[in-house]
Amino acid sequence: MNRVLAAIAAAALMLGCTPEAENKPDEVRPVRVLRVDAGEALRSFESVGEVKARHETRLAFRVGGKMIERLVETGSVVRAGQPVARLDPADLALAEASARAQEASAQAERNLAAADLKRYRELRERNFISQAELDRRDSALATAQARLEAVQAQRRQTANQAAYAVLAADTAGVIVAIEAEAGQVVAAGQTVARLARPGEKEIAFAVPESQRDFFEHASALRVTLNALPGRSWRARLRELAPVADPVTRTYAARASILEAGEDVELGMSARLTASANGGSRIEVPIAALYSRDDRPQVLLVAPDGTVRPQPVKTAGIANERVVIESGLKAGDVVVAAGAQLLRPGQRVRVLEGP
């Protein structure tokens, strides 16, 4: 009997406690939140390069031979027509002398053919020879005349080649590189020195594959020089290679420095910063995102203080923040961190103002 009474009392006690447990309020969790703002996204990218002349000429001999003298050094300022280097002229002088001798021989043969034609024409007038013989003499004169003209052209060519033994600067400028030394045998067209023309200056730099489109559409380019701290110049993209370098996988590019003065010297190290407006976009901290069913989500804070999940679509990371492509709008209040510790519909207490 005592056991039955004890069981009835325990059941009554349990029935009395159940409503109180069901009416117990949910735990209110403190959270930090942020208000979503769609701001202007300013992108930038920096590349290093070198100051170069807009126009740079590779000076080379038109003929091959042994270079016996170099008359300039790296950094030398030259004027138009100033000698830069000389070849050994001995072989070229011999070739010119041979061409002159051939010209004299051809001239003698032509004069002999002309004299023969004159005599045979007189004989033909007296009817001592046939017309065919006269025609042969006329043809011999034409052949000798043509050979003389060919030899004269060859002699002029060899004379020019003899003059090519002296390499001269075709314009005023600065020698920026020497690529051949005295005593070296050079081929025709082989670069001996590089001449930078005065005037426009530019930056030679390389663009990574991932930033090629960005540089093409950049709204602003700024140049800073390590040798001139605290100053910057505007720049304009002038050239971008259509094909990437097979070794570095970067695109060679050149940007003109606008309003560059004499203090901007060739060979200086430079930094080129490209910037562009990326348009309006929404960014949230990485900690605000969590994954549910392999989909990124954030927790929105409703006006009544509860939270609800909101799926979002991301578009990459920028400066340790996640770019949101869709799913959020300006004015939304999201949990800034610890969203994975909350459950949908749970009440929260904001620690800091949105």
Strand order of the largest sheet: 3-12-15-14-13-16
**How many structural domains does the protein architecture include?**
4
Query: Which value, in Å, is the CA radius of gyration?
Result: 44 Å
- The count of DSSP E runs of length 2 or more, i.e. the number of strands, is 23
The end-to-end span amounts to 65 Å
Mean pLDDT: 83
Q: In which range does the helix fraction lie?
A: 25-40%
CATH architecture of the largest domain: Beta Barrel
| Low-pLDDT windows of residues | 4-24
Instruction: Give the oligomer, counting copies of the same chain as homo and different chains as hetero.
Output: single chain
Element pattern in H and E: HEEEEEEEHHEEEEEHEEEEEEEEEEE
What is the CATH H-level superfamily of the largest domain?
A: Efflux pump adaptor protein, beta barrel domain
Remind me, CATH topology of the largest domain?
Elongation Factor Tu (Ef-tu), domain 3
Describe the largest sheet. Answer: 6 strands, antiparallel, barrel
Number of helices, counting only DSSP H or I runs of 4 residues or more: 4
General shape: elongated
What's the level 1 CATH class of the largest domain?
Mainly Beta
Strand content: 35-45%
